[in-house]
Design brief:
- Helices cover 25% and strands 24% of the residues.
- It has helices at residues 81-86, 112-121, 139-145, 158-161, 201-216, 229-244, 251-265, 309-324, 403-419, and strands at residues 2-5, 15-21, 28-29, 34-39, 44-48, 53-58, 65-67, 71-76, 179-180, 183-184, 219-227, 271-273, 278-280, 286-288, 290-292, 295-297, 300-301, 338-341, 361-365, 369-376, 382-397.
- With 424 residues, it is α+β, with helices and mostly antiparallel strands.
- The strands form six sheets. Strands 11, 14, 17, 18, 19, 20 and 21 form a seven-stranded mixed sheet that branches. A four-stranded antiparallel sheet has the order 1-8-6-3, with no helix packed on it. A four-stranded antiparallel sheet has the order 5-4-2-7, with no helix packed on it.
- Strand 9 (179-180) and strand 10 form a beta hairpin.
- Helix 7 (251-265) crosses helix 8 (309-324).
Length: 424
């Protein structure tokens, strides 16, 4: 017997929905003949026969969602088309009529992403008419099936999240403050000297935002080591002039300029995810994380790629001062297409930041430290020197950003900072 498995249909695909069997048990098939159709979140595909033979057993049903590498059927390779044709037809045998088996309700045809959407919207797929191929249910079908009689649940809080448990075995999200499955969060027991600090409105928004971002976006982090020798020399040569003008020429300004230019050249990072599509923005609007009395805020520098170093310095100084004085506005905080965060002088080596939704990427600066690096001297020989070095981490949303695009963007940021060919 030959086991036919559901193949890996994409780098990030972990399961597929069996949409249609193209053969039945007893059929004799040729090598590479399509056996069944499978739908995934990325694309639809056919699973071919790895060899000629007779279909001995079909192990999954139409509508089943099965993990990759699952055995979906078995082939008897001892029976080929020529052998089947040469074999004498079996004599008819009279058998007693058996009662017909009770019909089994077929599981609705839908991809994993559509099932997740239906779960979130409170839609019963069994009651939805599929408009796709072979009656397959699409996200549009789920949206149409959602009626005023099934209103969207209010913003989830720990006590309400328990109602999201799916009795039919669907995904059950962790419940903040309560637990997940058999794990329960220990109850807090006050001790003398403990300080209970209520969430401010901004802290609650930040907490909910970060939880949503980690839940909805598959984060990937990649890191670059950047030699800032030339950029530091450039800053040292001009920082006093900027200071006399009441402005601060910081390394953050150089990073913002480099990132804006790299985003213009690598627009896949200057985007956001929609329901069944994504949009690449025309404008490069950079959100720059700054501290405020109420916590971290991310004001936006609009059309940052059209500004030089001086324009970026002026914009950063302006939003930072207004954030610290509590005069930042909603307009200042809206419309970012990409974000940059800087932990400051007391930072650390590097860290993977959580994506600022609905962006698909965030660049986190690390601490600048003097390190031994190898450079090529005028004589063509390698030399060990001490230069200021920074590790910079890019977190990106793997739903629409692939590794090639992310690495190309970060490589370009690194190149621009190491060359430091900025007009100041």
């Amino acid at each position: 017997m030959i086991d036919v498995i559901l193949p890996q249909l994409g780098e990030s695909v972990s399961e597929g929905t069996i949409t249609k069997w193209l053969v039945k048990e007893g059929d004799v098939v040729a090598k590479d003949q399509p056996l069944l159709e499978v739908a995934t979140d990325k694309a639809d595909a056919e699973v071919p026969a790895p060899a000629a033979g007779r279909v001995a057993r079909c192990l999954v049903n139409e509508g089943d969602v099965v993990p990759v590498k699952t055995v979906v059927c078995q082939l008897d390779e001892s029976v080929t088309a020529s052998a089947a044709a040469a074999a004498p037809a079996p004599a008819p045998v009279a058998v007693a009529a058996a009662p017909a088996p009770a019909p089994v309700a077929a599981r609705p045809l839908a991809s994993p992403s559509v099932r997740k959407e239906a779960l979130e919207q409170g839609v019963d797929l069994a009651a939805v008419h599929g408009s796709g191929d072979h009656g397959r249910i699409t996200k549009d079908d789920v949206v149409r099936a959602k009626t005023p009689a099934m209103p969207a649940p209010p913003p989830a809080r720990p006590a309400q999240l328990a109602s999201m448990i799916n009795a039919s075995g669907g995904f059950v999200p962790p419940i903040p403050g309560t637990g997940f499955g058999s794990f329960k969060v220990p109850q807090y027991r006050p001790n003398a000297g403990d300080q209970v600090i209520p969430f401010t409105r901004r802290r609650r928004i930040t907490a909910d935002h970060m939880t949503y971002s980690k839940f909805s976006s598959p984060h990937v982090v990649t890191v670059a080591e950047i030699d800032l020798y030339k950029a530091s020399k450039l800053r040292e040569a001009h920082k006093d002039r900027y200071k006399k003008e009441g402005q601060s020429l910081t390394m953050l300004a150089f990073v913002v300029v480099a990132a804006a230019k790299a985003l213009r050249e690598n627009p896949q990072l200057n985007a956001r995810v929609l329901d069944d599509a994504y949009v690449i923005f025309k404008d490069v609007n950079l959100g720059v994380a700054v501290d405020s009395p109420d916590g971290l805020v991310v004001p936006v520098i609009r059309r940052a790629d059209e500004l030089g170093v001086r324009g970026i310095v002026r914009s950063i100084d302006d939003v930072a001062k207004r954030a610290k004085s509590g005069k930042i506005t909603i307009d200042d905080l809206s419309g970012a297409t990409f974000s940059i965060t800087n932990p400051g002088l007391k930072g650390n080596l590097f860290g993977g930041a959580i994506i600022n939704q609905p962006n698909v990427g965030i660049l986190r600066m690390g601490e600048i430290q003097k390190r031994v690096v190898v450079v090529e001297g005028p004589d063509g020989e390698d030399h060990m020197v001490i230069h200021p070095v920074m590790y910079m981490a890019l977190s990106y949303d793997h739903r629409i950003v692939d590794g090639v695009a992310a690495n190309s963007f970060l490589w370009r940021v690194t190149e621009l900072l190491e060359k430091a060919d900025f007009e100041v």
